[in-house]
Backbone:
């Protein structure tokens, strides 16, 4: 699994000109699921994401987690995170999981994130054409890949 995590002061997902999800202070998580990913990858990522100390404390130092600031989360599926660009100019998405594999993992990820956070997690819509807008706070943007455990 690959993720791009952005600390946001505001984020929203719009589908067909209708706002599907909207948060203020929190995290926008773009989630790419590969064909060999599983629920263990979800568990590792969730633990890392909720404990990332990327929110400012009283002294302006990034020392607080999403849990510490009671922030909100939007999770958006994004197969394009698995783009291969080595050959030519047209990306290959061969490493991205097919929907029959990725949808259950995506749903598990969102449900487990809700359980751990103790609150509703906002989402995009799997497979939909979405417009994602955000105000990246900092900016703070972090990438992780469960294959590298980084």
Residues:
């Amino acid at each position: 699994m690959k993720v791009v995590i952005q600390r946001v002061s505001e984020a929203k997902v719009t589908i067909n000109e209708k706002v599907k999800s909207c948060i203020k202070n929190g995290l926008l998580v773009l989630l790419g699921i590969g064909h060999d990913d599983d629920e263990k990858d979800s568990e590792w990522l969730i633990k890392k994401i909720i404990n990332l100390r990327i929110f400012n404390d009283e002294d302006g130092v990034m020392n607080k987690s999403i849990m510490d600031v009671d922030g909100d989360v939007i999770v958006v599926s994004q197969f394009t995170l698995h783009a291969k660009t080595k050959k030519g100019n047209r990306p290959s998405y061969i490493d991205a999981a097919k929907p029959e594999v990725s949808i259950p993992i995506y749903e598990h990820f969102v449900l487990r994130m809700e359980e751990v956070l103790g609150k509703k997690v906002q989402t995009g819509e799997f497979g939909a054409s979405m417009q994602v807008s955000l105000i990246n706070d900092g900016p703070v943007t972090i990438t992780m890949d469960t294959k590298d455990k980084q």
Q: What stands out?
A: The chain has one domain: 2-145. The domain at 2-145 is CATH 3.50.80.10 (D-tyrosyl-trna(Tyr) Deacylase; Chain: A;). The longest strand covers residues 131-145. The radius of gyration is 15 Å.
